[in-house]
Amino acid sequence: xxxxxxxxxxxxxxRALQRSDRDSEVADRTRAEIAAVSLESRLRAQxxxxxxxxxxxxxxxxxxxxxxxxxxxxxTTPDETVIPLSAVSMAWNLSPASVSPEGSDSxxxxxxxxxxxRAMARDRSPVVIRMHDATSITGTPERVGADFVDxxxxxxxxAPRQAHVRSTVTVxxxxxxxxxxxxxAWA
Length: 187
Prior knowledge:
- The chain has helices at residues 2-35, 39-44, 106-109, 113-123; strands at residues 50-55, 59-69, 72-76, 80-84, 88-92, 127-131, 136-144, 148-153, 167-172, 176-181.
- By secondary structure, it is α+β, with helices and mostly antiparallel strands.
- It folds into 2 domains: 1-36; 39-181, SH3 type barrels, CATH 2.30.30.100.
- A 10-stranded antiparallel β-sheet has the order 5-1-2-3-4-10-6-7-8-9.
- It is rod-shaped and about 100 Å long.
């Protein structure tokens, strides 16, 4: 009888060690998987939902997340607002879910910030560009380079005609907190 109790006790310890090892391995794998999840992937899971983001230089921005491109996102605030992902400092109440770029519309997830700003320039709609230092520029994007945009600065309610343009400002993409596209009042 004592041998059976001893062996049963040893088997119980072995099962407990095996469970502990398995639980430890699951916890390690879970930590490793979470460590590979990016903020962009977490935000991608929020498309078509309302989000609130802290944006460096612009404060809190709330609205419906419409689309995520390569390094940027589009939120309806009700203006259309493009935010470089690098300007996002925090997000409130995100779901723990994430979606990889391969799990989303792969074409739109490859569209760069440069391409998005070029589309704004082609559209000729006035924009307000808020910078990381909290300054802003109002005008129409004209020329878009690899890492800059030239903006004809003018009031938002007038057409970008030569008589209304105050100056041309070259803006580095690295300094942009967000770009809000306004419906042209002059259209």
